[in-house]
Amino acid sequence: MSLIKKRLSILLLISCISHTFGQTKNTGKVIENDNGHPLSDVQIIHQDSKDTLISNANGTFKFSKAGLYQFNKKGYYSKVFELEHGSNYIVQLRINPSELNEVVITANHIPKKLKKATATITIIPLKDLERGNDINIASVLNRTPGVFMQSGALNTNRITIRGIGSRNLFGTAKIRAYFKDIPLTTGSGETTIEDFELNTISRLEIVKGATSSIYGAGLGGTIHLTPKGAAFNQSQVNSNIAIGSFGLLKSTVSVDHGSSSNSFKVVYSNTHSDGYRENNTYDRKTVTVHTNHYLNAKNDLSFLAGYVDLKAFIPSSINEDTYLNTPKSAAFTWKQAQGFEDSKRGIFGLSWDHQYSSKTRHITSIFSSFYNAYEPRPFNILKENIWAIGIRSRVLGHSKLFNETFKWTFGGEFFRDIYTYKTFGNLYRDFPSGTGSVKGDQLSDFKERRQYYNLFFETTYEASKNIILTAGINLNQTSYRLNDRFPVSLTNPDQSGTFKFKTIPSPKLGVSYLISENIGLYSNVSHGFSPLALNEVLLPDGQINTNLKPETGWNFEIGTRGSLVKNRLQYNFSVYRLDIKNLLVSRRTAQDQFIGINAGSTQHDGLEASVNYKWLQKESITLVSFVNYTRNDFKFKTFVDGDNDFSGNALTGVPSDVFNTGIDIQSSFGIYGHINFQHVSDMPITDSNSLYSDSYNVTNLKMGYKTYLNKKLNMNFFLGINNIFDKSYASQILINASGFNGNAPRYYYPGNPVNYYTGININYKL
Length: 766
Prior knowledge:
It is a single chain. With 766 residues, the protein is mainly β. Helix content is 6%, strand content 56%. The chain contains six helices and 46 strands. The chain has a 22-stranded antiparallel β-barrel. A five-stranded mixed β-sheet has the order 10-17-18-14-15. A four-stranded antiparallel β-sheet has the order 3-2-5-6, with no helix packed on it. A hairpin with a 2-residue loop joins strand 26 (381-401) and strand 27. The two termini are 46 Å apart.
């Protein structure tokens, strides 16, 4: 009897769900192919009768006639789609890279066309992601004005935006990143995006400067990674294999399945490289799953999961003599210890988009992540684990104010992670050469609980057809709690304690003015901050330095974006000033120990420009060139570190000039090619500015041939050459490096010499 009751209960539940989320017939929704954002004001024209429908603010529409319809929206490729009676359809439109200013951006809380944005935002579409190889994201980011990524190895990178993060010694800090709605930034402000498979990303949106404080901590900006999704009403298998220099072997397989309202995408990749240098082997396996479910006209669900299994050996930085004479060498101690990073990380997120009415929408995402790593280093062996959970929820609405459109959003984000880490002695010196690292006695045992919450509110008011006003504020509260679980002794004081920041308000004001349909001006004033990491507030005696303050700054910028010459020329230009106070300096007290001090302030003045021009736009061939330029004038306004006064010096670790130019060619007969030239000026390595790295030029080339064997099967053959002219350069520098035991400081990570890759991509539609 109980079994019958259970079955009846299940049937009743299914019936309720079907009633609640039942599909509405003869309806549809137009969304963007990349991020699933609903597209309004799409023209939907019946091919025979020429009857025209328009999608509403939520992207939805109703139709009465079956048949072929053409979907048109400026900034997106047109699409012909067949609609039949009795169904609900999801229609996806792909962005047109030659009309990016018309594309809807979602990096802001309130989606809007890029040309109406009040901040400097760069869209990197899929076409640009495919310009180079799919091994390292550095070449992609370095074509973006204001963004600079140094890459010492595939697993050793540092990203800076407008100079923020340049003083972080290892990895990326003070910049936030999201994979869809899932934070890729830890509770201490460190960000890693390079571990994730580039083939799973459909586009990037980069918000520059402190205006990104709408996402909380992150003085430099925010990087949004939009995952690829499967097409609806279509199934396909895609396979890619590439080989190249330094033992490169990479394979990728993706499987897509889409019905009328559900889509599933699974991507697996396996990457191996022996590396250019000693102790430089790299192995990475990834699995990414992304699904979308349109339950009805008012409810959408999406699920995203990613898993990365990485083992990468670490050659580390080398001194000047080794860099100039034997750049393939690893640092001596890292080679002897055979130091490496062995990590596993995963992210999981579930998003629900609910339409309360035609004017109100609610988006909620819950997410979790984990990170487990084992890293033998010459000075010790680190074992660490991170587990994080969080939720991000916001309500969006629009109404009329004085007969003009008034949009608003409010919401919050809560994030908490638990970080446990232990160190052990490394006994490799006590064993024969070639043995590698040997685990010794335990040296420390810590557990950190880190959490923050953001509360935000933002409004956009279209004061007229051409004037858009934006105002917003973010409130952030961050706290740390440390539990020192190692036995207390004279040499190991108890470092347990709690550190809590005051609530930090970060306001912003912005205005956008459309001079014409294709040219706009914008300006904004905004505030941002970056929190202290817990290891920066710990003093050598185990006490917490409660006098430290987080870095804060104000961003002032003005810019223009638009298109000219019948949309053949697109440009973006901006100038800004970013003033930072409470400059945090990491002072090294031992090989693996740093303390933080507030040592002054910096002034970041900069110019960013990009121009794209279509020289040829014919059915048989397209020829496009681009030029991107960044001018950085970053100074220490006041900077006193002990007895040293570095006030007035150039900011360490940032080039003053970065220049990119290139040509893209596409033909109707399948041949395509890209060539990219990059110039990076010299940059100060030390705060005293007594040592600079050399400037360098790097040229990369990629060409290929695409062919359609039939309607279902197509192939893409490609060949790429990086650093064509075999230039020697430092692809990453370690600022203010210290020499230990009489050894010379190790400032340099040598870049790869000329290298190639080649491969084939096969796509089969089921």
